[in-house]
Amino acid sequence: MVATVLKLRYRILANSLLRRPSQLVGFIFGMLGALWLLGSVVAGFVAVAIFQGEGVAAIVAVIGGSALVLGWIVGPVLIAGTDTSVDAVKLAPFPFTSRQTMAALAGVGLTGIPGITTAIAALATVILWVRWPGAAVAAVPAALLGVLTCVLASRLMETLSRGLGGNRRGREIVGTVVLALLIMTGPIITGVLALLDSSGDIGGRLADAAGVLSWTPIGAAWAVPADLAAGGWATALAKLAIALATVVLLWVVWERALSASVSSAPRRATRSVRSGTLGLYGVMPSGGVGATWARALTGWLRDPRYVRQLIFVPLFPALFLFTSGVDGWPFGVSAVLVAFMLAVAGYADISYDGTAFASMLASGIRGRADRWGRVLGAACVGVPAVALVAVATCAVTGEWMRLPAVLGAAFGLLLVGYGVCAVSSALIVVPVAAPGDSPFKSVPGQTFVNGLLVFVVWGVCAVLAAPALVLAIVALTTSSQVLGAVALVVGVVVGAGVVVAGVLVGGRTLERTGPDLLQRIKAFPTT
Q1: Residue 209 shares a structural domain with residue 293
Q2: Neighbours of 234 (CB within 10 A)
Q3: Model's pTM, two decimal places?
Q4: Are 238 and 333 within one domain?
Q5: Membrane-spanning residues where (predicted)?
Q6: Cα dist. 388→33, 58, 284, 338, 411 in Å?
Q7: Tens of pLDDT along 129-184?
Q8: Per the structure, how many domains does the chain have?
Q9: In Å, how far are 404, 421, 440 from 453, measured between CA atoms?
Q10: Which residue, 105, 197, 253, 287, shows the most beta carbons closer than 10 Å to its own?
Q11: Tens-digit pLDDT profile for residues 14-48
Q12: Is residue 275 included in any domain, yes or no?
């Protein structure tokens, strides 16, 4: 049965690759990347086995193996929706028992490029223990336990994310949280490495980390050969028991989660509201501006495709806190970089409307009203966020004298960006992720030119905001409060002027280009 499912999987894959040459090229590059990675890993294992002792080999095996398991756990969230050729939902109509379905899914996970690469790399850990024959023999079943842990944990995570996401909202929340964690990985690693470097004993710290991980479900299997090489038979047996218990527990939990996810109908992401409740539509002014304002603000507060762009609000302060510290100047001007990112968030705003943009055209709303509504919706989120970052960073550093200059540069960039985007979004539509898609799923139809457009918009924003930026830079370098206040006034005045001009020009442009934008949106590939 498992062999039949695998044959069907590979037949589907072959047909897909033959039908789409670009996907075939990506598959080939994926295989080449896997081969390069395997070669690097094996070369590293050989170097450790020849030039290092048992202690270093144990650190490499345990920390590397633990990282591998974590990668498999996070993987289903990162690639959600990209490979659904064989899953539990598609196998549900067939007369398979729950365990047969699990065996088939585990086989599918193990026989893909990641699974094959993982299995070979895990078996290659035997090289680390060639000088200890007993440990080398034990490394084979230990590696198989580690690989089985990876596959089962991955399948469990995928099932839970689908069950969490029997509704779309759950998948979106999980994807956004993981995206935020991945973005913060760099600063966290930088801070950890700096901490290790300051301690003066990196090897000791890594050995302590490996010692802790060896008693956890993600590291126990990889530590069994290390303990045998060190003569710790009792601890090796204890960790082997942990590894076996982990596999059994993953299988049991996955079986229950799989049964629940297949037998229960998908839940819609809905909520009950009181009759007559209109949400933001009942709060905003009536008319075209108010309706568009309410719709735009609802998108910024509830649509994960917009919310993900707000990740940059805490990202830059945290990034500079890890890299340059509180006293570094980058941390003090984090608000300017936050504004720089948010300024172009709506450069192709109509793209997120999709074919629903037709309702706006049919409603007869004037282009100027649509532009004002979108600007006000974005400003309700962007202006408070930038102000909060500026005030918070000044409070942490105690440099309140910088606040006017920082606010001047930040507000100047942000408002200018809103004005520029009011025009650019009336001219530009690009393929964007569909609602509910993983943030890591590639968007069909994206081109290199589409990626360059955002840099063009950034360049225009920087030029138009130059007066406020120059004044703010001079004020910060000379510690002049007067110039800081002038920078704030100039930033707000120039930014407001650009917003008004952008709304007027963008409104007229949208009335002319609206039908063409809708046709281009409909022509975007969807799969």
Answers
A1: no
A2: 9
A3: 0.61
A4: no
A5: 24-51, 57-81, 102-129, 135-153, 173-196, 236-254, 274-294, 329-350, 375-398, 404-430, 451-476, 482-505
A6: 43, 47, 24, 11, 12
A7: 888 888 889 999 999 999 999 888 888 877 776 655 445 555 555 555 555 555 55
A8: 2
A9: 32, 12, 21
A10: 105
A11: 776 677 676 677 678 778 888 888 888 889 989 98
A12: no
